[in-house]
Amino acid sequence: MEKDLNGAVDMQIDECGQNKHSRNQEDQDFSSNILKCTMESSSLMQTFVDGYHGKHPAQDQSYLSRREFSFTLENDIYLRFQSFKNANEMEQSVKEKCPHKIDIGPVYSIDPVKRHAYAQSGSNGFAPVERELVFDIDISEYNDVRYCCTGSDICLDCWPLMAIAIKVIDAALRDDFGFNHILWVYSGRRGVHCWVCDSKARRLSNEQRSSIADYLHVYKGSENSSKKASLTGSVLHPFLVRSYTNVLIDYFEKKLMHSQKLFSYEERYQKILGVIPDESIVTELHDKWKADRKSSSCFEENRWNQLKSLLQSRKQKVQGLRRCVEEIVFTYTYPRIDMEVSKHMNHLLKAPFCVHPKTGRVCVPMDPQHCDSFDPTAVPTLSKLLEELNTGGWKADTENGWSGTSLGESIQFFRSSFLQPLLKTCREEMESSYNAKVQSNKNSLNW
Ligand SMILES: [Zn+2]
Q1: Ligand 1 centroid to 113 CA: how many Å?
Q2: SUPFAM superfamilies this protein is in (predicted)?
Q3: Last residue of a domain, one of 279, 307, 333
Q4: Are 113 and 83 in contact (CB under 8 A)?
C-alpha cells in the first residue's frame, strides 16, 4: 500500500512541476496530506451521491451499493464496476488503490460487483435504473471557431464559450424542464460538466434523456462545412429565440467577435462568409474587405455591421439569407454538448472535487450566475492546496476545515447552494411518499 501511495505522490509532484521531495519526513507528510485531500474529495462526493437518502425508514439501504464507481489507476488502468456499502468502505478503497481519477456511473438494479453471479444464475436483471442527467461540454469541440488556443487548452478569451453554454443550458433546464437541483463544475481541464440531480431527472429513461439532449442540440455541421448551425423552419423555436436574444448575440458582439478577431484576417472572415449561400453577397463583402488594407481596431465592428445590413436590409426575398445572421452567431457561440454523455444512463463522468490527472486542477463547482467571472486558469491545484494545508496546519476533517484554503469558497458554495437545498427536497419527497404508504396501509387495514 505504501508503495502505491508513493507512486501516486511521485506522479502528482511530477505533474505539478515541482521537485521530488527527498527527505523521509517530508515525504510522509506529503503522502498523508495527499491521502487526506483525496479522502476529503471522495467523502464530499460520497455525500453527494449517497445524500439523496439520509437516515429515514423509507430509505433504500442498497442504494449506495448499487452505484457504479470507476477508478483510474496509474498507467491508465481502469477499475470499472466498483461499489461500496458505505462511506467507510469507500474511503478504505480510495486509500488502498489511490486512484488518479474517480468517475461516477449509474445506480444499477443490483450491486455491479455481483453482476456476473446474477448472469450465471440465469437472471438477466443487471441494468442501470437511476442516474443524474449529465452534460459534458468540451472546449475542444469549438476549435474551428476559436483562435486563441488549440487542442484542450483554455484561456480567458475562449472561456466565454463555456459561459454561454452554462447560461443557455441552465436556463433551459430550469425554465423549460422545471429542474432545480443543478450542479455545474469546471472539469479541471478543457470544459464543464453539469449534474441535474432532481429525482425526476435521475429517473429519466434513455429515450427521455435523448429527447432533452435533442431539444438543446442545433449543432449540425461537419468538419468541412462553415455552417455549423442549421436553423430551419419559418420561425425559430422560442427557446432558440430566447437563447439568441438573452445570451448569444451579446456574447458574440461584445466579446467573442473581438477577442477572436473574427473579421481581421482573410482566413477567418472567409469562414464566416462561407455561411452565406448567396455568391454575389459573398463576393461583394469579400472584395470590399480585401481592398480595405488600413489596419483598424474597428474591423470587427465595421465589417459585422456591413454584413448585417447587407443581409437584412436588401428586403431579401429568400428567407434563408435573412436567417444567415443568426446562423453565423449560432455557429460561433451556441453550446456544443457531447450528446452521447447525456443520452445514456451508463455513461461515466468524473466526480466533482477530483483532481484532474493531467493538469492537477481540482474539479470545482461553480455558480452559473457568476460563470463570467470564473477563471479556469486560477482554479486551485493539488500542489497549491497541499502547500496551503501544510502552512496552515491540517484542519480539513472539521466542518469548515477547507475555509482557509483556495478551495474554501467552492466547498462553501457547493454545500449551501447545491447540497443543502437538494437534501431538503429529497427528505421532503421521501417523507411524503412514506406518509402516503403508511396512509394506504391504514386504509387497507380499515377494510
Ligand atoms: Zn483560449
Answers
A1: 42
A2: Prim-pol domain
A3: 333
A4: yes
Residue 442 Cα to ligand 1 midpoint, Å, equals 63
DSSP state at residue 140: G
> In the prediction, which pLDDT does 356 show?
85
pLDDT of 8 > 50? The answer is: no
Distance CA 396, CA 419 (A): 18
Q: How far, in Å, is the centroid of ligand 1 from the Cα of 391?
A: 33
256 C-alpha to center of ligand 1: Å?
A: 11
Cell of 78: 481502469
Range list of H helices, 314-419 = 319-333, 339-343, 382-392, 408-413
Q: What is the CATH number of the domain that holds 45?
A: 3.90.920.10
304 CA distance to ligand 1 middle (Å): 22
Q: 289, 313, 333 — which closes off a domain? A: 333
Give the distance (Å) from ligand 1 centre to CA of residue 140: 10
Determine which one of 68, 170, 198, 326 is catalytic: 68
Same domain, 242 and 109: no
Does 13 score more than 50 pLDDT?
Answer: no
Confidence of residue 28 (pLDDT cuts 50, 70, 90): low
Catalytic status, residue 138: yes
- Active site residue: 136, 170, 198, 327, which one? 136
Assess whether 10 carries a catalytic annotation: no
Residue 256 sits in which domain range? Answer: 217-333
Active-site residue among 40, 138, 170, 326?
Answer: 138
* Residue 414 and residue 285 share a domain: no
- pTM over cut 0.85: yes
pLDDT in tens, 203-212: 999 999 999 9
Tell me, yes or no, whether 169 lies in a domain.
no
Note whether 328 and 347 are same-domain residues. no
Neighbours of 438 (CB within 10 A): 12
Beta-strand pair 67-73/191-196: unpaired
Which residues touch 305 (CB under 8 Å, ≥6 apart)? none
374-416 pLDDT, tens per residue?
999 999 988 888 888 777 765 555 555 677 788 888 888 988 9
Mean of per-residue pLDDT scores for the chain: 83
Q: How many structural domains compose the chain? A: 2
More confident residue, 252 or 75: 252
